[in-house]
């Protein structure tokens, strides 16, 4: 498969503007491309699809890439089939996945991306690149008919991964605990991406980029830490 993906934990880190922390990686992903199709379906309220697209457009135009929103087309499937590249932004993962199915975009996106079309996701857009959305942090504010996602990679992702604060008095479950609960019922690997981190996927290769380590969870095993720039190709065929 000719995968060419950039899966980012978050669109904005502390002290940076929208997508600024991933500028070099985005430029690398889109080398030779002049346009990108933005899918703004993840935002459940507070910002319209047009306003969300305008925010993405402002960022990409600085890099010489034009942006169109999929909602601007009468036929979203045709828009995906003709796109040079696709970016799915963050928001609520359940809202996003429901809209992808409602607009019949799951199969066209999977087909194009697995054939080599560059794909970029942040937060919810990174969640839906995985096998399922079962490791999202979002509340299920809408009903989805299935948790099955785009399956561009055969593992799950947990963006915004946080380590427990040793000084906190909070007694709720940690992110590690939640992922362990997931593995009681699901086998696929899960990678926890800390803020500012991202995965670069080329073909069957996976490399961690960004300033932080990432935590990999395999069913029934102790979590593993991987350093930035380390290759974690085994995620593509762990099971």
UniProtKB/TrEMBL annotation:
Its EC number is 3.4.13.21. Keywords: Cytoplasm, Dipeptidase, Hydrolase, Protease, Serine protease. One of its GO terms (biological process) is proteolysis. Coiled coil: none annotated. It is found in: Cytoplasm. It catalyses: Dipeptidase E catalyzes the hydrolysis of dipeptides Asp-|-Xaa. It does not act on peptides with N-terminal Glu, Asn or Gln, nor does it cleave isoaspartyl peptides. It holds the Pfam family Peptidase_S51. InterPro entries: Class_I_gatase-like (IPR029062), Peptidase_S51 (IPR005320). GO terms for cellular component: cytoplasm. The keyword Thylakoid does not apply. GO terms for molecular function: dipeptidase activity; serine-type peptidase activity. The keyword Protease applies. It comes from the Bacteria. Belongs to the peptidase S51 family. This is dipeptidase E. It comes from Pontibacter actiniarum.
């Amino acid at each position: 498969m000719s995968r060419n993906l950039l899966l980012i934990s978050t669109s904005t880190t502390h002290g940076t503007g929208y997508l600024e922390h991933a500028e070099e990686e985005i430029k690398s992903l889109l080398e030779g491309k002049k346009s990108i199709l933005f899918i703004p379906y993840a935002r459940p309220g507070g910002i319209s699809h047009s306003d969300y697209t305008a925010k993405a457009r402002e960022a990409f135009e600085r890099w010489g890439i034009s942006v169109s929103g999929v909602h601007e087309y009468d036929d979203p499937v045709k828009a995906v089939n003709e796109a040079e590249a696709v970016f799915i932004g963050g928001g609520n993962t359940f809202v996003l996945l429901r809209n992808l199915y409602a607009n019949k975009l799951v199969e066209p996106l999977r087909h194009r991306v697995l054939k080599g079309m560059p794909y970029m996701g942040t937060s919810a857009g990174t969640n839906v690149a995985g096998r399922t959305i079962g490791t999202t942090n979002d509340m299920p504010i809408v009903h989805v008919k299935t948790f099955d996602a785009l399956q561009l990679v055969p593992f799950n992702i947990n963006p915004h991964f946080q380590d427990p604060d040793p000084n906190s008095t909070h007694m709720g479950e940690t992110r590690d605990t939640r992922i362990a609960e997931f593995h009681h019922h699901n086998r696929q690997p899960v990678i926890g991406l800390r803020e500012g981190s991202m995965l670069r996927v080329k073909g069957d290769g996976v490399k961690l980029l960004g300033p932080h380590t990432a935590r990999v969870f395999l069913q029934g095993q102790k979590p593993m830490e991987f350093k930035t720039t380390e290759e974690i190709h085994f995620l593509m065929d762990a099971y």
